[in-house]
Protein backbone atom coordinates (compact mmCIF):
# COMPACT_ATOMS: atom_id res chain seq x y z
CA UNK A 1 0.00 0.00 0.00
CA UNK A 2 1.16 3.51 -0.86
CA UNK A 3 -0.01 6.59 1.00
CA UNK A 4 -0.40 9.53 -1.39
CA UNK A 5 -0.31 13.02 0.14
CA UNK A 6 -2.15 14.98 -2.48
CA UNK A 7 -4.04 18.05 -3.53
CA UNK A 8 -5.70 18.83 -6.85
CA UNK A 9 -2.80 20.65 -8.51
CA UNK A 10 -0.84 19.71 -11.65
CA UNK A 11 1.94 18.20 -9.55
CA UNK A 12 -0.58 16.28 -7.48
CA UNK A 13 -2.28 14.92 -10.58
CA UNK A 14 1.00 13.52 -11.88
CA UNK A 15 1.15 10.99 -9.06
CA UNK A 16 -2.51 10.01 -9.03
CA UNK A 17 -2.26 9.38 -12.79
CA UNK A 18 0.87 7.27 -12.32
CA UNK A 19 -0.65 5.20 -9.53
CA UNK A 20 -3.73 4.56 -11.63
CA UNK A 21 -1.68 3.68 -14.72
CA UNK A 22 0.50 1.28 -12.74
CA UNK A 23 -2.51 -0.21 -10.89
CA UNK A 24 -0.70 0.16 -7.58
CA UNK A 25 -2.78 0.08 -4.40
CA UNK A 26 -2.91 3.50 -2.77
CA UNK A 27 -4.90 5.62 -0.38
CA UNK A 28 -5.21 9.37 -0.54
CA UNK A 29 -4.36 11.66 2.33
CA UNK A 30 -5.67 15.08 1.23
CA UNK A 31 -3.43 18.03 2.08
CA UNK A 32 -5.52 21.18 1.70
CA UNK A 33 -2.84 23.67 0.76
CA UNK A 34 -5.36 26.52 0.84
CA UNK A 35 -5.86 25.87 4.56
CA UNK A 36 -2.21 25.48 5.44
CA UNK A 37 -2.16 21.73 6.00
CA UNK A 38 1.19 21.54 4.19
CA UNK A 39 2.75 23.11 7.29
CA UNK A 40 1.49 20.47 9.73
CA UNK A 41 4.42 18.76 11.51
CA UNK A 42 3.18 15.31 10.47
CA UNK A 43 3.34 16.29 6.81
CA UNK A 44 6.66 18.10 7.15
CA UNK A 45 8.18 14.89 8.49
CA UNK A 46 7.42 13.38 5.07
CA UNK A 47 7.85 16.45 2.84
CA UNK A 48 10.23 18.93 4.51
CA UNK A 49 9.81 21.40 1.62
CA UNK A 50 6.10 21.79 2.58
CA UNK A 51 4.94 20.94 -0.93
CA UNK A 52 2.68 18.24 -2.30
CA UNK A 53 2.80 15.58 -3.58
CA UNK A 54 4.56 13.12 -1.35
CA UNK A 55 4.24 9.38 -0.84
CA UNK A 56 5.01 6.75 1.76
CA UNK A 57 5.52 3.29 0.29
CA UNK A 58 4.79 0.73 2.99
CA UNK A 59 6.12 -2.14 0.87
CA UNK A 60 9.27 -0.84 -0.84
CA UNK A 61 11.06 -3.12 -3.26
CA UNK A 62 14.08 -3.50 -0.97
CA UNK A 63 11.90 -5.01 1.75
CA UNK A 64 13.01 -2.40 4.26
CA UNK A 65 11.14 0.13 6.35
CA UNK A 66 8.44 2.32 4.76
CA UNK A 67 9.99 4.80 2.33
CA UNK A 68 8.88 8.45 2.24
CA UNK A 69 9.53 10.52 -0.88
CA UNK A 70 8.74 14.06 -1.97
CA UNK A 71 9.25 15.89 -5.31
CA UNK A 72 6.97 14.69 -8.09
CA UNK A 73 9.73 13.86 -10.57
CA UNK A 74 11.55 11.66 -8.07
CA UNK A 75 8.28 9.95 -7.14
CA UNK A 76 7.46 9.22 -10.80
CA UNK A 77 10.90 7.70 -11.37
CA UNK A 78 10.63 5.62 -8.21
CA UNK A 79 7.16 4.31 -9.06
CA UNK A 80 8.20 3.50 -12.62
CA UNK A 81 11.11 1.44 -11.36
CA UNK A 82 8.89 -0.20 -8.76
CA UNK A 83 6.28 -1.35 -11.26
CA UNK A 84 8.64 -1.88 -14.21
CA UNK A 85 6.58 0.30 -16.52
CA UNK A 86 6.63 3.72 -18.18
CA UNK A 87 10.42 4.12 -17.97
CA UNK A 88 12.97 1.95 -19.79
CA UNK A 89 15.15 0.02 -17.37
CA UNK A 90 18.44 1.04 -18.98
CA UNK A 91 20.13 2.47 -22.02
CA UNK A 92 19.68 5.64 -23.99
CA UNK A 93 15.91 5.27 -24.10
CA UNK A 94 15.82 5.66 -20.32
CA UNK A 95 17.82 8.86 -20.40
CA UNK A 96 15.72 10.33 -23.20
CA UNK A 97 12.60 9.86 -21.09
CA UNK A 98 14.37 11.30 -18.05
CA UNK A 99 15.56 14.37 -19.94
CA UNK A 100 11.96 15.22 -20.84
CA UNK A 101 10.86 14.57 -17.27
CA UNK A 102 13.50 17.05 -16.09
CA UNK A 103 12.47 19.48 -18.85
CA UNK A 104 9.02 19.55 -17.33
CA UNK A 105 10.32 19.85 -13.78
CA UNK A 106 12.79 22.62 -14.57
CA UNK A 107 11.01 24.43 -17.39
CA UNK A 108 7.37 23.90 -18.21
CA UNK A 109 6.17 23.57 -14.61
CA UNK A 110 7.93 26.60 -13.14
CA UNK A 111 7.24 28.85 -16.12
CA UNK A 112 3.57 27.90 -16.39
CA UNK A 113 3.32 28.28 -12.62
CA UNK A 114 4.62 31.85 -12.80
CA UNK A 115 2.23 32.42 -15.70
CA UNK A 116 -0.68 31.36 -13.46
CA UNK A 117 0.56 33.45 -10.55
CA UNK A 118 1.09 36.76 -12.29
CA UNK A 119 -1.92 36.36 -14.54
CA UNK A 120 -4.45 35.28 -11.91
CA UNK A 121 -3.22 35.57 -8.32
CA UNK A 122 -0.75 38.44 -7.95
CA UNK A 123 -2.32 41.36 -6.06
CA UNK A 124 -1.01 43.78 -8.70
CA UNK A 125 -1.12 43.20 -12.43
CA UNK A 126 2.46 43.61 -13.59
CA UNK A 127 2.24 43.63 -17.38
CA UNK A 128 5.92 42.93 -17.89
CA UNK A 129 5.74 39.78 -15.75
CA UNK A 130 2.50 38.61 -17.34
CA UNK A 131 3.86 39.05 -20.85
CA UNK A 132 7.18 37.44 -20.00
CA UNK A 133 5.65 34.24 -18.64
CA UNK A 134 2.93 33.98 -21.28
CA UNK A 135 5.61 34.24 -23.96
CA UNK A 136 7.86 31.72 -22.25
CA UNK A 137 4.98 29.30 -21.85
CA UNK A 138 4.25 29.68 -25.55
CA UNK A 139 7.89 28.97 -26.38
CA UNK A 140 7.81 25.80 -24.30
CA UNK A 141 4.57 24.70 -25.98
CA UNK A 142 6.42 25.17 -29.26
CA UNK A 143 9.30 22.97 -28.07
CA UNK A 144 6.79 20.30 -27.09
CA UNK A 145 4.89 20.60 -30.36
CA UNK A 146 8.10 20.14 -32.33
CA UNK A 147 9.01 17.09 -30.28
CA UNK A 148 5.56 15.57 -30.82
CA UNK A 149 5.79 16.17 -34.57
CA UNK A 150 8.67 13.66 -34.53
CA UNK A 151 7.51 11.17 -31.89
CA UNK A 152 4.15 9.80 -30.78
CA UNK A 153 4.87 10.56 -27.14
CA UNK A 154 7.05 13.01 -25.25
CA UNK A 155 9.68 10.43 -24.33
CA UNK A 156 9.66 8.64 -27.69
CA UNK A 157 7.56 5.89 -29.21
CA UNK A 158 5.90 4.75 -25.97
CA UNK A 159 3.81 6.42 -23.29
CA UNK A 160 6.00 7.14 -20.27
CA UNK A 161 6.45 9.16 -17.11
CA UNK A 162 7.44 12.07 -19.35
CA UNK A 163 3.88 12.21 -20.68
CA UNK A 164 2.47 11.78 -17.18
CA UNK A 165 4.57 14.70 -15.95
CA UNK A 166 3.77 17.05 -18.83
CA UNK A 167 0.05 16.44 -19.31
CA UNK A 168 -1.27 18.09 -16.11
CA UNK A 169 0.60 21.28 -16.96
CA UNK A 170 -1.15 21.48 -20.35
CA UNK A 171 -4.63 20.92 -18.90
CA UNK A 172 -4.94 24.59 -17.80
CA UNK A 173 -3.86 25.93 -21.21
CA UNK A 174 -6.59 28.53 -21.28
CA UNK A 175 -5.47 29.97 -17.93
CA UNK A 176 -1.98 30.17 -19.43
CA UNK A 177 -3.36 32.28 -22.33
CA UNK A 178 -2.48 29.64 -24.89
CA UNK A 179 -4.46 28.11 -27.76
CA UNK A 180 -3.87 24.48 -28.62
CA UNK A 181 -4.81 25.06 -32.26
CA UNK A 182 -1.47 26.81 -32.71
CA UNK A 183 0.29 23.57 -31.76
CA UNK A 184 -1.36 20.78 -33.77
CA UNK A 185 0.90 17.92 -32.71
CA UNK A 186 0.66 18.94 -29.08
CA UNK A 187 -3.12 19.12 -29.48
CA UNK A 188 -3.24 15.62 -31.01
CA UNK A 189 -1.20 14.20 -28.12
CA UNK A 190 -3.18 16.11 -25.49
CA UNK A 191 -6.51 14.73 -26.63
CA UNK A 192 -5.12 11.20 -26.86
CA UNK A 193 -3.71 11.27 -23.32
CA UNK A 194 -6.91 12.85 -21.95
CA UNK A 195 -8.87 9.76 -23.01
CA UNK A 196 -6.72 7.25 -21.15
CA UNK A 197 -8.81 5.54 -18.45
CA UNK A 198 -6.19 6.14 -15.76
CA UNK A 199 -6.07 9.85 -16.57
CA UNK A 200 -9.84 10.15 -16.47
CA UNK A 201 -9.95 8.28 -13.14
CA UNK A 202 -7.24 10.47 -11.63
CA UNK A 203 -9.02 13.68 -12.59
CA UNK A 204 -12.34 12.37 -11.27
CA UNK A 205 -10.80 12.55 -7.79
CA UNK A 206 -11.29 16.33 -7.89
CA UNK A 207 -15.02 15.94 -7.30
CA UNK A 208 -14.48 14.13 -3.99
CA UNK A 209 -11.27 15.71 -2.75
CA UNK A 210 -11.71 19.35 -3.75
CA UNK A 211 -15.15 20.11 -5.18
CA UNK A 212 -14.38 23.83 -4.80
CA UNK A 213 -11.54 23.64 -7.34
CA UNK A 214 -11.78 26.59 -9.67
CA UNK A 215 -13.62 28.78 -7.15
CA UNK A 216 -12.04 32.17 -6.50
CA UNK A 217 -9.28 32.04 -3.90
CA UNK A 218 -10.08 33.57 -0.52
CA UNK A 219 -7.72 35.58 1.67
CA UNK A 220 -6.90 32.64 3.91
CA UNK A 221 -5.76 30.60 0.93
CA UNK A 222 -3.71 33.52 -0.40
CA UNK A 223 -1.91 33.79 2.93
CA UNK A 224 -1.06 30.10 3.06
CA UNK A 225 0.01 29.88 -0.58
CA UNK A 226 1.71 33.22 -1.11
CA UNK A 227 2.69 34.47 2.33
CA UNK A 228 1.75 38.05 3.12
CA UNK A 229 1.07 39.20 -0.42
Q: How would you explain this protein's 3D organization?
A:
The chain has 229 residues and is α+β, with helices and mostly antiparallel strands. The protein folds into two domains: 2-86 and 200-224, Glutaredoxin; 91-196, Glutathione S-transferase Yfyf (Class Pi), Chain A, domain 2 (Up-down Bundle). The chain contains nine helices and four strands. Strands 2-1-3-4 form a four-stranded mixed beta sheet, covered by helices on one side. The termini are far apart.
Segments where pLDDT lies below 50 for 5+ residues?
none
Q: How much is the average pLDDT?
A: 94
Radius of gyration, taken over Cα atoms and rounded to an integer in Å:
18 Å
What characterizes the major β-sheet? 4 strands, mixed
Bin the strand percentage.
5-15%
> Structural class, please?
alpha+beta
Supply the number of structural domains: 2
Write down the oligomeric state.
single chain
* Shape, principal axes of CA atoms: globular
Write the H/E string, N to C: EHEHEEHHHHHHH
> In the CATH hierarchy, what is the architecture of the largest domain at level 2?
3-Layer(aba) Sandwich
The CATH class of the largest domain is: Alpha Beta
Side-by-side strand order of the widest sheet? 2-1-3-4
SS summary, helix count = 9
CATH topology value of the largest domain = Glutaredoxin
Q: Indicate the percent of residues in helices.
A: 55-70%
Distance between the termini: 39 Å
| CATH homologous superfamily assignment of the largest domain | Glutaredoxin
Number of strands: 4
Amino acid sequence: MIDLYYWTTPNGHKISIMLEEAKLAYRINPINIGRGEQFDPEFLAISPNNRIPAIVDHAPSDGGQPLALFESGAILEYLADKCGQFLPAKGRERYIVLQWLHWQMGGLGPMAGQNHHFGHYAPQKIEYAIERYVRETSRLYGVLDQRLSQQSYVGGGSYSIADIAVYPWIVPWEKQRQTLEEFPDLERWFHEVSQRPAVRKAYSLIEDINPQAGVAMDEQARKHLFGNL
